[in-house]
């Protein structure tokens, strides 16, 4: 199925959805973003982007008294809340571009000398030329579901746009990752690279999935549990994407699971922040349900530069991957947020995720969603999977054969689902070979 056919089929599924709108951009959650801040002699200045009006303005606070030891030790932005403070004035400022706090009162005015920082965009030629391209004015943008995430047509596609400095690297990383994994049946495909009139990349489009992400389903299916474990194995062990964790942000369904990769044949450990010359990605993925009721991963934002980090190793990464899957499944089964681990002796995020997974596996899970797999069976599968995948020479089929041989529950949907993934694994292997040929 080509990209155009895929979009047409997808739009037909969306006919019964209400028309898109821009209401999300006017909420306190999505309207404003802090782009940057700096401390001057007498002021702290925040540059705030208004996504509803597509403009930037400056929020100014008096600088703390440097004679106060506590204030002197604060980071520049600490003690200020520009998004909360500026939100009530976002519509009343008119064309003013400065909001200033003076003696406890807010005032706003226009500073004609204020130059909004403009992101240094990448050129279209910096990306593979094989990808489809569209001019931004040619996109029929009809609504927004989140800041910087727009709807094209009547739910035909999603447009992820670049508006902030940090977006340049993040969106660029997403484009490169999605193109590198373009043949993967469990990765959301990139449809078009979006450029402006100067041929600078301002974002990309991807399919809209009417079924949404996993948490939108209010259910847990055995096939999704099996597919999640299989896809993590495929990305990590076959395509050699190594886990590299820099934060702990719960992103819709799957925790902020970040990988580094040299696609297919190159294992590397990485450090921040520059985009490398060869594919090497730090991946955070969100789980969607596609039209065939299978999981699709998206949201690949964070890149790393190739290097070495002696504190990290492949074994720790593999164990942390399994730990993050445990945390995610705990959330979708129970609808409870998983506990944070605040242990100063654990200096690496991987250690914290592993400890958290152990705590979750030791406690009972109270399932509050519809499911065709019991919580106990899912936990037994997770425990076996995490134990086996750290062994040298491990292969996904090893887990499938062991689990289906030891699981005694009659008519187990999870056994059936894990067996079904063997065919998917073979298909993914062929796609990996095709992808490598395309890259070469």
Description:
The structure is a single chain. The chain has 440 residues and is of the alpha+beta class. It folds into three domains: 3-25 and 119-207, Phosphorylase Kinase, domain 1 (2-Layer Sandwich); 31-109, no CATH class; 214-439, no CATH class. It contains ten helices and 23 strands. It has helices at residues 3-13, 69-73, 82-86, 165-180, 222-238, 314-334, 349-362, 375-388, 396-406, 413-439; strands at 32-39, 43-50, 55-62, 98-102, 105-109, 133-135, 141-146, 149-152, 157-161, 192-195, 201-207, 219-220, 241-243, 250-251, 254-255, 259-261, 269-271, 281-282, 286-289, 295-298, 302-303, 305-307, 370-371. The chain has a six-stranded mixed beta sheet. The chain has a five-stranded mixed beta sheet with strand order 1-2-3-4-5. The protein has a two-stranded parallel sheet with strand order 12-23. Helix 9 packs antiparallel against helix 10. The longest helix has 27 residues, at 413-439.
Topology:
Blueprint: H1 3-13, E1 32-39, E2 43-50, E3 55-62, H2 69-73, H3 82-86, E4 98-102, E5 105-109, E6 133-135, E7 141-146, E8 149-152, E9 157-161, H4 165-180, E10 192-195, E11 201-207, E12 219-220, H5 222-238, E13 241-243, E14 250-251, E15 254-255, E16 259-261, E17 269-271, E18 281-282, E19 286-289, E20 295-298, E21 302-303, E22 305-307, H6 314-334, H7 349-362, E23 370-371, H8 375-388, H9 396-406, H10 413-439
Parallel strand pairs: 3-4, 6-10, 12-23
Antiparallel strand pairs: 1-2, 2-3, 4-5, 7-8, 8-9, 9-11, 10-11, 13-16, 14-15, 17-22, 18-21, 19-20
């Amino acid at each position: 199925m080509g990209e155009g056919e895929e979009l047409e089929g997808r739009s037909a599924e969306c006919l019964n959805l209400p028309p898109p709108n821009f209401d999300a951009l006017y909420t306190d959650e999505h309207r404003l973003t802090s782009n940057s801040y700096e401390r001057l002699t007498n002021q702290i200045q925040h540059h705030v982007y208004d996504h509803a009006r597509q403009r930037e303005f400056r929020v100014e606070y008096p600088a703390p008294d440097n004679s106060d030891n506590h204030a002197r030790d604060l980071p520049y932005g600490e003690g200020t809340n520009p998004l909360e403070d500026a939100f009530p004035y976002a519509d009343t400022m008119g064309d003013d571009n400065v909001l200033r706090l003076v003696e406890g009162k807010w005032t706003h005015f226009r500073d004609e000398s204020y130059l909004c920082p403009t992101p240094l965009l990448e050129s279209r030629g910096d990306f593979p030329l094989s990808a489809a391209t569209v001019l931004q004015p040619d996109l029929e943008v009809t609504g927004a579901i989140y800041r910087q995430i727009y709807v094209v047509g009547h739910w035909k596609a999603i447009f992820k746009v670049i508006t902030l400095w940090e977006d340049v690297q993040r969106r660029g990383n997403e484009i490169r990752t999605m193109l590198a994994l373009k043949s993967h049946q469990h990765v959301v495909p990139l449809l078009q690279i979006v450029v402006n009139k100067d041929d600078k990349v301002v974002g990309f489009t991807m399919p809209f999935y009417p079924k949404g992400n996993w948490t939108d389903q209010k259910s847990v299916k055995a096939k999704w549990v099996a597919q999640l474990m299989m896809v993590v194995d495929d990305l990590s062990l076959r395509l050699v994407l190594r886990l590299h964790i820099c934060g702990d942000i719960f992103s819709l369904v799957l925790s902020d699971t970040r990988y580094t990769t040299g696609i297919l044949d190159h294992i590397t450990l990485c450090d921040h922040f520059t985009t490398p010359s060869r594919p090497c990605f730090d991946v955070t993925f969100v789980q969607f349900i596609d039209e065939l009721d299978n999981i699709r991963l998206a949201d690949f934002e964070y890149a790393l530069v190739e290097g070495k980090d002696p504190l990290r190793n492949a074994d720790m990464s593999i164990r942390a991957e399994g730990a993050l899957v445990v945390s995610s499944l705990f959330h979708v089964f129970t609808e409870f947020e998983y506990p944070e681990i605040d242990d100063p002796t654990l200096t690496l995020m991987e250690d914290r995720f592993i400890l958290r997974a152990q705590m979750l596996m030791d406690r009972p899970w109270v399932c509050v969603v519809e499911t065709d797999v019991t919580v106990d069976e899912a936990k037994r599968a997770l425990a076996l999977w995490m134990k086996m995948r750290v062994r040298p020479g491990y292969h996904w089929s090893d887990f499938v054969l062991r689990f289906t041989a030891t699981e005694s529950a009659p008519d187990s949907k999870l056994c059936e689902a894990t067996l079904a993934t063997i065919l998917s694994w073979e298909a993914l292997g062929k796609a990996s070979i095709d992808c490598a040929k395309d890259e070469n």
